[in-house]
């Protein structure tokens, strides 16, 4: 029988332009003098996008402020109906938007689609939430009084997002902000302008169906850091959710603090896993390999440090090395590919630098280096690297946004917890163990110091139902599920006297 040879995927730029057209992105957003929107798959320029000028950014914030003043008066469940329609439009556009994520951010097909699914999921969550923005009734010490708390819309919510989750991070914030009665001004990564434009077109379709959405409820500012700074500095924006590197957070955080605005900071991670003596090694192997190599190591929750107990090291690490050497690297649109391209040359250079430093610190590097076979010649594809380190030092202590996994031996449980927590970031973490004492200790007050601590699954890939975010240099912000919505609203405590006297609190006497 003839073996069919898979056809080469369509040229990237052509495919992306066809999707933009289908999703209704107007031609007016493009201009020959604009910022080039590249695909990391082939390095091709898909389009030139007109950037937002500082004056336009300020006008957009003014429109969003005016929109907020209308939107806050619409009952929350009705606002939820708008978000329900966004979810419906996302369902209809899932294949196209997911593919565009693949083309622009380089994620493999299932992850591109998964990112859009996350957007749909948070919309569903927010619709339910729109009828559950509860406050409390609180016991008061004064007779014939009632005390309660109420939650009110806050204002314009600024959203700054990173390239690696180009649209899901926007939705975690925007879906909640909209039901909470806020308007949104979004500054997407300058590396992923096309998916932002497509998302805006999708929201506009939902707005048309809803009717009565005030102009300016969603504004998008296209450009680099300077345009993000305008958003951060504007006193009409009481809350800014900023996702990106810790370096970005160090610039943005103090500016927001100086004007007493709220900051939801979602910054870098340096996530670790521990493989204990009792671990199910087959399960651990799968969990580790996906968490470390998936998305070409470009997730904030990517596994970067692995501590393996000395008693299982020689059974696990050789198998892991085998998986590393056989992983499929290539065009992320092809079936069976796990590792697509890095976002750009700077990311690849950063990976090379970290590997050199690791070698200098006594590390033994397996894999690494540029992968240029066939259609990968024009993008920055890297072979994932597994680095056996004698100890945790040098580049192991920081995040390099690329597929590098540092592997270290340990002997003592308490000591490994200390090492686990001895880095700046505090986003995600895991332990692989069947020992109940170790598992419970790891997620207890004296265990992992991260915002996410898992047992017997890798650190990457969270669900929207939980609050997402991390501690320390990860910034402390929480997004998505649980009670993350509270950051997008202001709380008022109300006391009502329905009696005929005026008792004062704390027994204070005052006569007139
Ligand atoms: P980045 O920090 O380079 O850029 C992120 C965004 O911040 C971009 O939109 C950028 O234009 C903007 N920005 C940068 N400096 C700014 C400033 N001074 N003022 C205003 N805006 C500014 O990050 P990146 O390379 O796009 O993304 C990768 C990083 O993001 C990694 O460190 C990763 O761990 C992190 N990340 C964190 C999470 C999380 O939820 N914790 C999620 C995704 C990515």
TrEMBL record:
PROSITE patterns: ALDEHYDE_DEHYDR_GLU. This is aldehyde dehydrogenase (NAD(+)). Residues 37-491 form the Aldehyde dehydrogenase domain. PANTHER family: ALPHA-AMINOADIPIC SEMIALDEHYDE DEHYDROGENASE. Belongs to the aldehyde dehydrogenase family. InterPro entries: Ald_DH/histidinol_DH, Ald_DH_C, Ald_DH_CS_GLU, Ald_DH_N, Aldehyde_DH_dom, ALDH7A1-like. One of its GO terms (molecular function) is aldehyde dehydrogenase (NAD+) activity. SUPFAM superfamilies: ALDH-like. CDD domains: ALDH_F7_AASADH. Keywords: NAD, Oxidoreductase. It is an enzyme of class 1 (oxidoreductase). The active site is at residue 266.
């Amino acid at each position: 029988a003839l073996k069919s040879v898979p056809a080469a995927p369509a040229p990237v730029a052509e495919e992306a332009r066809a999707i933009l057209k289908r999703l209704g992105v107007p031609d007016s957003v493009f201009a020959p003098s604009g910022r080039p929107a590249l695909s990391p798959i082939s390095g091709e320029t898909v389009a030139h996008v007109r950037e937002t000028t500082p004056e336009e950014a300020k006008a957009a914030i003014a429109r969003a402020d005016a929109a907020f003043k209308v939107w806050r008066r619409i009952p929350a469940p009705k606002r939820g109906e708008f978000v329900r329609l966004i979810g419906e439009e996302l369902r209809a556009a899932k294949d196209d938007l997911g593919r565009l994520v693949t083309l622009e951010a380089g994620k493999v097909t299932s992850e591109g689609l998964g990112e859009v699914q996350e957007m749909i999921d948070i919309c569903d969550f927010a619709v339910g939430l729109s009828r559950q923005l509860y406050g409390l009734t609180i016991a008061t010490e004064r007779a014939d009084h009632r005390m309660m708390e109420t939650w009110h819309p806050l204002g314009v919510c600024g959203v700054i997002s990173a390239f690696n989750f180009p649209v899901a991070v926007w939705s975690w914030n925007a879906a909640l902000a909209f039901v909470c009665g806020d308007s949104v001004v979004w500054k997407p990564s300058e590396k992923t302008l096309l998916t932002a434009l497509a998302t805006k077109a999708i929201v506009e379709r939902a707005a048309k169906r809803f009717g009565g959405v005030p102009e300016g409820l969603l504004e998008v500012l296209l450009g680099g850091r300077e345009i993000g700074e305008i958003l951060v500095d504007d006193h009409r924006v009481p809350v800014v959710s900023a996702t990106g590197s810790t370096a970005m957070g160090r610039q943005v955080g103090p500016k927001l603090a100086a004007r007493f605005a709220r900051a939801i900071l979602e910054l870098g991670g340096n996530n670790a896993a521990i493989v204990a003596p009792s671990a199910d090694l087959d399960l651990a192997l799968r969990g580790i390999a996906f968490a470390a190599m998936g998305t070409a190591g470009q997730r904030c929750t990517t596994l970067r440090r692995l501590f393996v107990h000395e008693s299982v090291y020689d059974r696990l690490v050789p198998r892991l090395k085998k998986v590393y050497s056989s992983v499929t690297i290539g065009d992320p649109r092809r079936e069976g590919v796990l590792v697509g391209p890095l976002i750009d040359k700077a990311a690849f250079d950063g990976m090379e630098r970290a590997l050199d430093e690791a070698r200098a610190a006594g590390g033994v590097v397996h894999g690494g280096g540029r992968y240029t076979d066939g259609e990968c010649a024009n993008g920055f594809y890297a072979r994932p690297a597994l680095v056996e380190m004698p100890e945790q030092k040098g580049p192991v202590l920081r995040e390099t946004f690329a597929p590098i996994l540092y592997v270290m031996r340990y002997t003592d449980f308490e000591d490994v917890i200390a090492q686990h927590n001895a880095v700046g970031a505090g986003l995600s973490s895991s332990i692989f163990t069947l020992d109940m004492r170790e598992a419970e200790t790891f997620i207890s007050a004296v265990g992992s110091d991260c915002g996410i601590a898992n047992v017997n699954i890798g650190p990457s890939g969270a669900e929207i139902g939980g609050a997402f975010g991390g501690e320390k240099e990860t910034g402390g912000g929480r997004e998505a599920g649980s009670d993350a919505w509270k950051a997008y609203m202001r709380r008022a405590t109300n006391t009502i006297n329905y009696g005929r006297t005026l008792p004062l609190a704390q027994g204070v006497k005052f006569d007139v």
